[in-house]
Amino acid sequence: MVLSARRQQRRQCGAKLLYWFEDCAIDTDQRELRRRAAVVPLEPKVFDLLVYLVEHRQRVVTKDDLLASLWNGRIVSESAVSTRINAARAAIGDNGEEQRLIKTMPRVGLRFVGEVREQPGQRQPSASGGPNAPPPPFALPDRPSIAVLPFDNMSGGSEQDYFADGMAEEIITALSRCAGLFVIARNSSFTYRGKSVDVRQVGRELGVRYVIEGSVRRSANRLRFTGQLVDTTTGAHIWADRFDGELRDVFELQDRFTESVVAAVGPQLQLAEIERLKHKPAAHLDAYDLLLRAKQLEYEFTPDSLVAAIAYAKRALAIDPSYAPAMALVAYCYTERRQQGWAENSPEEGTEGALLAARAVEFGQGDGNVLWMSACAIWNLAMDSAHAKRLAERSLAINPNSAMALTSLAWIEACDGNAARGLELFRHAERLSPRDPRAWFISTGAAAAHYYEAQFD
């Protein structure tokens, strides 16, 4: 069934559509679902499914309709469809028992039965408890909690943004390895990029006591870090410092930066924990620079950006064939391409990705990021869940604050029949990255865990 002529005309003119029901709003232009104040993270396929059900709410939608419209007629397993239906229900506050909004018609299909208000693109006025009301703040963890905001690029050109982002991410990774700290994941703290924000607001939205702001200046062979630590509960500056050195000293400068932060926020932390923050330098700075470019492209998460990320990471491997982070990143990009249906040579990429993941583990046994990326690749490309689980657990032992390692292990546990354990890990990952643009990966996994829990009970 095609869209109504009115909807088609709006789509062709590029106008947005807003659908309102209960405490939810769907913005088709921004591709956002909002409940009260918060944007609900959704896998793209789940968002499309929800919009399709809402737009065709006057009739029952069959599984064949969904396959034809959302999967372009491809054969998809029953569990894959059910998982996404469960994720759509969970996102709007519904479930398979109540079926208050999305109703299953036995042996026929689905129908959206909620009362929907449809209007052109304008936001509903704020009201207490309405879609734009401020969300409740998170409770502060029982240990020092930190968010590292994106560093300002002071190098005089946007082409160096990737380097500033890479430096901030390295600081996040280093701090995350300290078990005595609670560190917000990169994907959430970087949602404040380019925004003038009040650190007290950041503290409320992320549920952290401290925020780190900083800048990076890269000029020829010189490098300068500046940083300041702010208490979000009072706005008071706790620490500020500047670190200068040669570009070849980048890893030493990162170590000094993180050690200074730890010394400022957690004097009670053991020296052994601070020692764990030490950065292992790359063998070649050119390979490291290419890896930072590749990681920035992977975060963009488009078909073209993943292809470019793979190309940059392979250039890094051409310089240093034993560079485990580059191997793991290529394998992980292949995994993402397969998961999203973007791989053109899926069997070849699967074989190459599985081999690269195995080699990455061999060369990067002490790198938590290498281990969780390799775990994802080995689980998806080599179909070895037992080995993947061991790698994800090792990653968490190294970096207990890794939201991605938690999410990877949660998926493996849920799909292996350990739904309760999977849900626990998903909840922990969500707290570490409460504003993650790719949090749909977590929410879809949680929906899958609920589905498998029902199947195994």
Write a concise synopsis of the structure shown.
This protein is α+β, with helices and mostly antiparallel strands and 457 residues long. It is 50% helix and 14% strand.
Written overview of the protein:
The chain is α+β, with helices and mostly antiparallel strands and 457 residues long. The protein has 3 domains: 5-120, Arc Repressor Mutant, subunit A; 145-275, Rossmann fold; 285-456, Serine Threonine Protein Phosphatase 5, Tetratricopeptide repeat (Alpha Horseshoe). It is 50% helix and 14% strand. The chain is built from 18 helices and 13 strands. The strands form 3 sheets. Strands 8, 9, 10, 11, 12 and 13 form a 6-stranded mixed β-sheet that branches. A 5-stranded antiparallel β-sheet has the order 4-3-2-1-7. It has a two-stranded antiparallel sheet with strand order 5-6. Helix 12 packs parallel to helix 14 (368-380). The longest helix is centred in the C-terminal third of the chain and has 18 residues, at 346-363. The two termini are 37 Å apart. Mean pLDDT is 84; it is low at 1-15 and 122-133.
